[in-house]
Write a structure and sequence with these properties.
The protein is α+β, with helices and mostly antiparallel strands. Helices cover 32% and strands 22% of the residues. The chain is built from 12 helices and 21 strands. Helix 5 runs antiparallel to helix 6 and helix 6 packs antiparallel against helix 8.
Length: 543
C-alpha cells in the first residue's frame, strides 16, 4: 500500500481554524464583490445588501424603525447596511471555520445566503423580475467556490511513518506537528489572489453602479424650470430674525431632512418619466409626461414640511419654496370629485418608483390648499434625494400621508379597501400636522453667561398658522415671545424672547397657539401613530 493511502485526516488545530475563519471572510468578500459587479448591468437595487436591507426595513416593527430614526437620524440607512455587513462577517467567519473540516457544508452555507438574497431581491415591491436574483446567485457561487478551494488547501492529514521520514520544509515553522501537513503555499497564493481579485471586482462594480442613472443626471442637468405662472409672494423682510443659532427661515436643499426607506436613491430619467392617474371615480384616466407638466401653469409656494417621526423639538422639519402643478387641477381633469361633492374615492394612493405607497385624503388634496406635484425646490429642479423628477407636497399633512417622492402612479380608492405602506405597519390613515414649537437656542446643556440671553426658535401649524408663542422659565409664568412676520399659514414662524438669565440651572419650555385657538398640549405622546405631541424644553446652566 502506498504511503499516501495510509495518510489519515486529523482534527485541525487553532492555527488552521483561524485560517479557516479568514477563508470565510475572503469568500464572503468575493461573493459581495461579484454581486456588486453583476448588479451594475441589472440595477443597483438588486445588490444583495440593498435587497436584504430593504426587506429588513419592511419587516422591522414600527417602534424599532422609529427608534432608529430618532437615534441615527438620516444615517439610519448607513447604520442598517453596516449592521448587515457585520452580521454577514460573523456568519462568514463561522462558515470558514466549519469548512476546514466540512468543505461542502461550508460552501453550501454561502449558497444558502445567496438564495436568501435572491429571494429578497425578487420579492421587493419594485422588483423588475427574475433578473434581480442574478447578483445574489452569481455572488454566492463565486463565494462558495472560493471557500471550497481555500478549505481544500487547509485540509490537514497525518502522514504515515514512511512519509514522515522526508519532512516538508517549513512545516515545523507553522506550529504543526512534523507528521501533519497542509498546502501552505497553495493557500497563501489562493488567498492573496482572491483578495486582490475581489478588491478589483468590487471597485469596478461600485464604480459602475455609481455611474448608473447617467440619463437621469443628464435630464436634470439640462432642465430649466419655466417661470411660474403663479409665483410665490416675496418673503416679508421681518420673517427671518437675526438671532444666532436660530434655524434659517428657508432651509437649504443640502440641509433639508430626508426620511424614507430607499437604501439607493432612485435616479429617474425625466425624459421617460410618466405619471398615471386611474382608479375609483376617475372618469377619464390619463397619463402625463414630464413635458406635459412643464407646459402647464406652474405655481410657486413656500411650504414647511414635517416628518411624522419628528420627536418634540426634533430636526425633521424644514421650509422650502416649491414649484409645481396643482394636483387638484389634474384630478379634476380626470373627472375626480372630492367626497364632499359626491366623489366615490376618499383616498388617493401615490406610488413611487421604488414601490412605496402613500395614502392621502382626497378631500384634503382638493379643498383649495396648495397641494401640488412639485418639480422644483428652492429655485432648482428637485434634488434626486428629494424626489426628482416629481414628488407630492401637501400643506398641513405629515409626509407619510402626503409627500410621495419619485411618484409615478396615482390611484383613487377608499380607506376601507386599501392600506398603504405605513398604515400596514401601525401608523394612522389620516395625520394632520400637530401644532408644535421648538427652541433652537440656547441648545440643551448650554452654559450662557448671566445677563440677557436670547431664547429663540420656530413654531409651525401648517395650513392653520401660528398665532402666539410663549416661553416659561422654570415654573414661572408664561411670557409671550416676539413673533417674526408670517410668510403664509403653510410656513413656520420664527420667534424670540430676551431672557434676563440669572446664575444656576434653569429649564426653558415653549408652547405655541395656532390660529384656531388651540394651544400646544403638554401631554407627551409617541410619534406612532400620528405624530408626537408635548412641549419642548431645554435645560441650561447660567454661569
Amino acid at each position: 500500500m502506498r504511503d499516501e493511502e495510509r495518510d489519515q485526516r486529523v482534527r485541525p488545530g487553532l492555527p488552521l481554524l483561524a485560517l479557516g475563519a479568514l477563508s470565510g471572510v475572503l469568500a464572503g468578500f468575493a461573493a459581495l464583490a461579484a454581486a456588486e459587479l453583476v448588479a451594475a448591468p441589472v440595477r443597483p437595487q438588486s445588490s444583495p445588501v440593498i435587497a436584504v436591507g430593504g426587506a429588513s426595513i419592511d419587516a422591522t416593527p414600527a417602534p424599532v424603525k422609529d427608534w432608529a430614526i430618532r437615534h441615527f437620524g438620516t444615517n439610519d440607512k448607513l447604520v442598517l447596511q453596516l449592521g448587515i455587513l457585520a452580521v454577514l462577517t460573523v456568519l462568514a467567519l463561522a462558515l470558514g471555520v466549519l469548512a476546514v473540516r466540512f468543505r461542502r457544508v461550508g460552501a453550501a452555507g454561502i449558497l444558502l445566503f445567496g438564495i436568501i438574497g435572491a429571494a429578497a431581491a425578487i420579492n421587493r415591491p419594485d422588483s423588475t423580475g427574475i433578473t434581480d436574483a442574478l447578483p445574489s446567485i452569481v455572488g454566492a457561487i463565486a463565494g462558495a467556490l472560493l471557500l471550497y478551494v481555500l478549505a481544500g488547501r487547509l485540509t490537514t492529514v497525518r502522514r504515515s511513518p514512511a512519509s514522515v521520514a522526508e519532512p516538508v520544509p517549513g512545516e515545523a515553522a507553522e506550529g504543526l506537528a512534523a507528521s501533519e501537513r497542509w498546502d501552505r503555499r497553495g493557500f497563501v497564493l489562493a488567498a492573496a489572489s482572491a483578495a486582490v481579485a475581489s478588491a478589483g471586482v468590487g471597485a469596478l462594480g461600485r464604480s459602475l453602479n455609481a455611474s448608473h442613472g447617467k440619463d437621469a443626471i443628464a435630464s436634470r442637468n439640462k432642465l430649466v424650470l419655466p417661470a411660474p405662472g403663479s409665483p410665490a409672494r416675496p418673503v416679508p423682510k421681518r420673517a427671518a430674525l437675526r438671532v444666532p443659532g436660530i434655524s434659517p427661515f428657508v432651509t437649504p436643499n443640502t440641509d433639508f431632512y430626508r426620511v424614507d426607506t430607499a437604501l439607493v436613491v432612485p435616479r429617474v430619467d425625466a425624459t421617460t418619466w410618466q405619471l398615471r392617474i386611474h382608479g375609483k371615480g376617475v372618469r377619464r384616466p390619463a397619463a402625463y409626461s414630464f413635458d406635459d407638466l412643464l407646459r402647464r401653469e406652474l405655481i410657486e409656494r413656500d411650504i414647511t414640511l414635517t416628518c411624522v417621526s419628528n420627536e418634540v423639538g426634533g430636526p425633521y422639519a424644514g421650509n422650502a419654496r416649491w414649484t409645481g402643478v396643482r394636483l387638484a387641477d389634474l384630478l379634476a381633469e380626470c373627472g375626480v370629485e372630492p367626497p364632499s361633492r359626491g366623489g366615490r374615492a376618499d383616498q388617493l394612493v401615490a406610488r413611487s418608483v421604488d414601490g412605496m405607497t402613500i395614502g392621502s385624503p382626497v378631500e384634503d388634496v382638493m379643498d383649495g390648499r396648495d397641494a401640488m406635484l412639485a418639480l422644483g425646490m428652492n429655485g432648482e429642479p428637485l434634488p434626486f434625494a428629494h424626489g426628482f423628477p416629481v414628488r407630492m407636497v401637501v400643506p398641513g399633512l405629515y409626509g407619510f400621508v402626503s409627500a410621495c417622492k419619485w411618484i409615478e402612479d396615482i390611484e383613487l380608492t377608499t380607506f376601507d379597501s386599501y392600506d398603504p405602506y405605513w398604515v400596514k405597519r401601525g401608523w394612522a390613515r389620516r395625520a394632520p400636522i400637530k401644532t408644535e414649537s421648538r427652541i433652537d437656542t440656547p441648545k440643551p446643556f448650554a452654559r450662557p453667561r448671566a445677563g440677557t440671553v436670547m431664547v429663540a426658535g420656530v413654531a409651525w401649524a401648517q395650513h392653520r398658522g401660528i398665532d402666539k408663542v410663549e416661553v416659561r422659565i422654570d415654573d414661572g409664568r408664561w411670557q409671550e415671545a416676539r413673533l417674526a412676520a408670517e410668510d403664509t399659514r403653510d410656513t413656520w414662524r420664527q420667534w424670540s424672547l430676551p431672557w434676563q438669565a440669572t446664575t444656576g440651572g434653569h429649564t426653558l419650555t415653549v408652547r405655541a397657539t395656532d390660529r384656531t385657538g388651540a394651544v400646544q398640549t403638554d401631554q407627551r405622546t409617541r410619534t406612532i401613530p400620528d405624530g408626537a405631541s408635548g412641549r419642548h424644553s431645554v435645560v441650561v446652566t447660567v454661569d
